[in-house]
Amino acid sequence: MASEIGSFKYEVVVDALPYIDQGYDDLGVRESALAMVEEECRRYRPTKNYLEHLPPLNTSAFETKLMSQEFERIQNRVPMETLSMKRYELPPPSTGRSEVSAWEESIDNSKAQLEHQWVRAMNLELMLDYGIEAWKAYLEVFVAMQAKAHTKLQHLKKEIQDVNWQRKQTQTQAGEKLRTLEANWVSLVSKNYEIEQQCVEMEKQIHLARRRIAEKEITPAMNGSEQMNGHPEENNEAEEESAMEHEPEQDNEENISPPVS
Questions:
Q1: What would the pLDDT profile of 63-77 be if each residue is shown by its tens digit?
Q2: Region annotation Disordered: residue ranges (predicted)?
Q3: Residue 90: CB partners within 8 Å, gap ≥ 6?
């Protein structure tokens, strides 16, 4: 059984940190939590027996025969029998005053009653003689049992306190780590947001620069085409002037070159 319990894998993970979590005492939090629990219990349909690793429960392990009879009587709704006081009564013979057997039964009953009263008187005398010491001894045993139980209770309370202190320390350390990680997460998210903003701004600038470059490339081409198409006479004069400038240079070159023999 122990091996079965040890090998059983619990699928429930408790992620609550009550020592560092806040807001439990706020107005409406408890009611909201209870409503959520009720809603989950209402729509939850278990598909697995979580006690299948345990043996079947034996409910009659500690029942005695008398207890079983009493449980059966209660289940059948039979009223309980009242206490019979007949043995403590001294009735006269009911069948007749002349019958010997009836008188003998009545005399035996009276002797039994007398013996019972004598035993009670003897018990009272014994209680007067030894009852005080018996009660003292019983009280001593009771006090010792109480002291032992109190010691065990204090030990259990100390263990509970140690467990709670360990839980608090563990959760406090986990809370500090969570706060550090949360701060790092916030910082990284802020940096990512800033980087995204810068990327968007740079994309805008690149788009604007590309647009300006495209406009600058289009403008000279349009000006050149306008000059070529709009002033043909000026273009011809410029060509004639450039040709006249190159002719003297050719003449000089001819004069400088030596005669061919």
A1: 899 999 999 999 999
A2: 218-261
A3: 106, 109, 110, 113
Which tokens go with 188? 């990284």
Angstrom distance (rounded) from CA 24 to CA 32: 11
What CA–CA distance (Å, rounded) separates 30 from 159?
29
Cβ atoms 88, 113 nearer than 8 A: yes
Nearest to 176 by CA among 17, 15, 10: 17
Q: Which of 131, 90, 81 is nearest to 111 (CA)?
A: 90
Burial bucket for residue 105 (CB in 10 Å: 0-12, 13-18, 19+): middle
CA count, 13 A, side-chain hemisphere, 198: 6
Residue 23, both tokens: 């807001």
pLDDT for 213-222, tens place per residue?
Answer: 888 877 766 6
Residue of 121, 85, 86 whose CA lies nearest to 105: 86
> Largest alpha-carbon pair distance within the chain?
202
The set of residues, in sequence order, having a beta carbon less than 8 Å from that of 110 and lying 6+ positions away, is 90
3-class DSSP state of 89: coil
Span 20-37, mean pLDDT? Answer: 83
